[in-house]
Amino acid sequence: MLRVLIVLLFVAIVVALFSSLWSLLRRPAADGTTAQHLLWRVILSALLILALIYGFNTGQLQPHAPW
Fold it and tell me: Is 33 part of a structural domain of the chain?
C-alpha cells in the first residue's frame, strides 16, 4: 500500500512539473498559474519525502544497495 502511494506521489510530481512548464510556455506573463503548479510540486515532494521516511522507519521499505 505504501509503495503504491509513493508511486502515485511521484507521478503526481511529474504531472505538476510538466503542467507548470506547459503553463509557462503558453502564457509566460500569466496570473500566477505557473507558480501555483510549482507550489503543488513542492507540496507533493514534501509528502513523498515524508512517506519515504515513514516507510524506512517502520520497516516497510528497506534499502537494497549493494554497499
Answer: yes
pLDDT in tens, 43-58: 999 999 999 999 999 9
pTM of the prediction? 0.85
Percent pLDDT > 90 in the chain is 66
**Count of structural domains, the chain:** 1
Beta carbons within 8 Å of 27's beta carbon, 6+ residues apart: 33
Identity of residue 63: P
Check if the beta carbon of residue 28 is closer than 8 Å to that of residue 46.
no
**Residue 29 within any structural domain of the chain:** yes
